[in-house]
Design goal:
alpha/beta
């Protein structure tokens, strides 16, 4: 099955008309994107982009063979004209299946927001799923619409799609749902479409998509569905560091937003009576996906040693505070009398657990060595020990990010 992306942008395109934002200012030339529209085997057109016939011609294709034009959402952006000679565009009722004269089979997939997704099966069996902007499946999309989802027998699990085209930046939870259902697997080619100005175009967009196991392609690209394509190599261990309010926690959460069942490990406790801390915790909790679970603990070694879904630890600096509390490391006499040695044992156990971890792990920590020198010996001790811990953990991670002013800089990976 051959797929040509006539456009890959949001419904109002990129850059947006008259938008003064930095993303739109830099979305020029090859970074500009028309509204998303897909041409499947020259026979099916999914959504419309301004100048669809010209866009197809630039990509080396004609729309003369199109037998079905399907819309996924109301086209309320720039005016779109249906090219002459094409059948009337419309949307299909949820769950309905169309079998076209070309041999393609199209099933309408219900969404959790206004819009319709389409599962397209080629005559020789390749399957793609195309989701509308801002949409995620309301149910598990299956080949026959009855919840079976398998091609290889009644007792087999769902067969992953060969390709998924979705609003990865706007609805990463849609990708997480499909992964949880087994409909997106390690070999599924995940293509980001409906790309708008919410993410800076170019390298930053590519970096964020790679963290989700997805990629973007320029307008006019032709892909072969089912053809082998190396998917982004997702690192097993990632350390995200940065200063206070730098955006490091948001970056860590964003890296796992497209994966299901994440276990969020909060090491700060509830700090009873501290209203400001309670507000911080609530802010973090409210922006996390509802499917994530939360554990409030500093006992990280068993979690790192176990199997299971991705683990997000926020953060190592609070873990170190707890570890120093346990060995009375704040007291100079206790530090000299064995506290330092006891802390080295604890940090060594944590670093060894990170080294041995088999599950996906994202850890957050603070950079505190670049600011004002603490006025107390205990404060300087914490600064030094956190620097040592960060360096030791970073040495065990394939991917290392420094977040400054909300911008993630890749230090490794």
């Amino acid at each position: 099955m051959e797929l040509t992306l006539l456009g890959t942008g949001a419904p109002d395109g990129l850059p947006r008309s008259h938008c003064p934002c930095a993303a739109c200012a830099t979305a020029r030339g090859p970074l500009a994107r028309a509204a998303t529209a897909l041409l499947v085997d020259g026979a099916v057109l999914l959504d419309l982009t301004p100048g669809a016939a010209l866009a197809a011609a630039r990509a080396g294709h004609s729309l003369s063979g199109v037998r079905q034009v399907l819309l996924t959402h109301p086209h309320d952006g720039p005016a779109v004209e249906l090219p002459a000679g094409l059948p009337t565009a419309g949307r299909v009722a949820d769950g309905r299946v169309l079998t076209l004269i070309s041999g393609h089979r199209v099933r309408a997939v219900p969404m959790d927001s206004p819009g319709t997704g389409y599962e397209v099966t080629a005559p020789d069996g390749e399957r793609l799923l195309y989701l509308p902007p801002g949409g995620a499946p309301a149910g598990l999309p299956t080949r026959d619409g009855n919840g079976g989802g398998a091609r290889s027998g009644r007792d087999a699990g769902p067969t992953p799609y060969d390709m998924l085209l979705a609003d990865v930046t706007g609805r990463p939870d849609a990708l997480a749902r499909l992964r949880a259902a087994g409909l997106v697997g390690p070999t599924t080619d995940v293509i980001a479409v409906h790309i708008g100005h919410e993410v800076p175009p170019g390298a930053e967009l590519d970096r964020r998509l790679a963290a989700a196991g997805a990629r973007a392609v320029p307008d006019g690209t032709t892909l072969t569905v089912g053809e082998y394509h190396a998917v982004p190599d997702l690192p097993r261990r990632t350390l995200v560091t940065g200063g206070a309010r730098s955006g490091k926690s948001l970056e860590a959460e964003r890296r796992l937003a497209s994966f299901p069942g994440v276990l969020y490990v909060a090491t700060g406790g509830d700090r009873e009576g501290d209203l400001e801390w309670r507000a911080r915790v609530a802010t973090h909790r409210d922006r996390r996906p509802g499917s994530w679970r939360t554990a409030e603990t500093c006992d990280l070694v068993p979690l790192l040693a176990g199997e299971g879904p991705p683990l997000l630890v926020d953060c190592l600096s609070l873990w170190l505070t707890d570890a120093m509390d346990r060995v009375d490391a704040w007291d100079d006499a206790a530090w000299e009398a064995g506290g330092e040695e006891a802390l080295r044992v604890r940090t060594g156990e944590l670093v060894a657990a990170v080294r041995a971890a088999r599950r996906t792990v994202v850890l957050v920590t603070n950079e505190v060595g670049s600011g004002v020198v603490p006025a107390t010996a205990s404060g300087r001790r914490f600064r030094d020990e956190l620097g040592r811990l960060n360096a030791a953990v970073a040495a065990e991670c394939e991917h290392l990010l420094l977040v400054v002013a909300g911008q993630a800089l890749t230090l490794r990976g």
